[in-house]
Amino acid sequence: MSQPNPSAPTLGPGFWEKFALLDRRIIFAFIFLGLALPLFYTIRQPIPVSPEGRAYYQSIENLPAGSKVLLSFDYDPPSSPELQPMAEATFKQLFTKNCKLVVIGLWPQGPQQAEQALATALRDPRFKDKKLEYGVNYANLGYMAGNEIVIQKMNADIISTFPSDYKGNATASLPIMRGVRNYKNFDFIINFSSGFVGTREWVQFCVDRSGAKMIAGNTAVQAPENYPYFRSGQLKGLLAGMKGAAEYETVAGQPGKGISFMGSQSVAHLVVILFVILGNIAYFVSRRKW
Amino acid sequence: MMRREIPLFITSVVGFIFVIRFFIPHEPFYSLEDVSSSWIQVIQAFAIWLGILNLLKVSLDKIYKKERGWGYSGVIIFSFLAISIAGFFFPLWEERPAGYSYLQHAREFLKPGTSFDWFYWYVYSPLSSTMFATLAFFIASASFRAFRARSFQATLLLLSGFVVMFGSVPVGNVLFGWLPAGWQVSDIADWVRNVPQVAGQRAIQIGIALGIISTSLRLILGLERAHLGREE
């Protein structure tokens, strides 16, 4: 390693060598400020919509009014900042089109996340006159253990797979479930997922076997593994992370949490990029013989 | 001997049922697959209990032996008891709707306003979200230390990382707004995600699928026995 040169300028190797060993708590402090401060300000930024985000919106928009849609909530609270805004905006768009919604969860926490998203959507003044009723316009069948086996069993018989709903009612007694046997009785399937069991299993065990049409909302970390399914047409649309939520809110004309959180994400990305650039400068300067 | 052969036989039969059902979607394979799926579901549900009991055993052992970090095990036991009591026994201290039996009321543990619901939204949800959120800090710190242009491949990774990071936030297009239409940083990021990334993912997924097929065949044919433990 080169020795610091006393005649070097202030930002000489000594400085950069020290910078390369920067205390991580300083980086943490910058990230904290980068994430927290934008939450107190309204930062208006034009949000470009990706083809997969536009396809997600358009797929729902193309559904005939009154279509029956199955939604699977396969995530837990840590992923809710990314997935909850998507879920809320999706419920709103589906209710606008008078769709009948059946919710399930393959993660134990999924149905509770769905209940929260439903409650938020139902508070929207646009749906006050529609008098949306539980069991008729929407239903939550709750959680079922078994991961991909549940997806497979639903292809045979949904009611025997979910004998009772989230509230303890017999699933067969719900008016919305009348005439529903398997995926063929749903016009569309939507999956929100943050890992296993999730979108990949839905594509493999539901879409490929039953030919169902499906779109998905994923966390940014998970989305890359599902891009091939979007490219192959097995997924009709895909939202990736908080950016995906913001894109969907933009194209659907429903500004919400996704758009408002983009300010924080923008600044945090800039901070990380800045530190990576400075880290590389430190690396090259430290390697140089002064 | 029977301890190995019976599990091997069950594995083989169930494996064959699923394979045959895929190619011949008719009775009796249809019903056989349904029964096998139900068994798997029951086993998985029991596995949750097994996991809970194992966690309790490990945690209690740690506390008993006063091993390093035993305090955390105490927190696990306390949290487990607190949320279990809130879930199973809340009708004891909460007002029961008229005409409801204890069990009827207990089934509604997920309803908004119950003790379990309170724990979920005001304890579990913020704590688990906090744990996940700390990742942002560690990723930033790790990127600073590890994301170096040490070689051509590393430089390529670094540049594509920059493009995707800039392209994933609206500020990227604001900073690079001078780029021609169709070449905006978000367009380039979309291309990276949809072309080279997809090619890589496909290669990985095809590799995984081939691995699963060969391992499954070895399991079904009884050639793979590692899951049965060591032979005595």
Summarize the topology.
The complex is a heterodimer of chains A (290) and B (232).
Chain A: H1 13-20, H2 24-36, H3 51-61, E1 68-74, H4 80-96, E2 100-105, H5 110-122, E3 138-143, H6 148-154, H7 158-161, E4 188-193, H8 199-210, E5 214-218, H9 227-231, E6 238-240, H10 241-252, H11 257-287
Parallel strand pairs in A: 1-2, 1-4, 2-3, 4-5, 5-6
Chain B: H1 2-23, H2 29-64, H3 70-89, H4 102-106, H5 115-146, H6 152-167, H7 170-175, H8 185-194, H9 196-220
Helix pairs in contact in B: 1-2, 2-3, 6-8, 8-9
Plain-language structure description:
The complex is a heterodimer of chains A (290) and B (232). Chain A is 46% helix and 11% strand. Chain A is of the alpha/beta class and 290 residues long. In chain A, strands 3-2-1-4-5-6 form a 6-stranded parallel β-sheet, with helices on both faces. In chain A, α4 (80-96) links the parallel β1 and β2. In chain A, α4 (80-96) packs across α5 (110-122). The mean pLDDT of chain A is 92. Chain B is built from 9 helices and no strands. The mean pLDDT of chain B is 90. In chain B, α6 (152-167) packs across α8 (185-194). With 232 residues, chain B is mostly helical. At the A-B interface, α2, α5, α6, α9 and α10 of A face α2, α5, α6, α7 and α8 of B.
The description of the largest β-sheet of chain B is: none
Oligomer: heterodimer
**Biggest interface, which chains?**
A-B, 65 and 61 residues
CATH-assigned homologous superfamily of the largest domain in chain A: HUPs
Q: Give the CA-based shape of chain A.
A: elongated
> What structural class do helix, strand and pairing data of chain B support?
mainly alpha
- E-strand count of chain B: 0
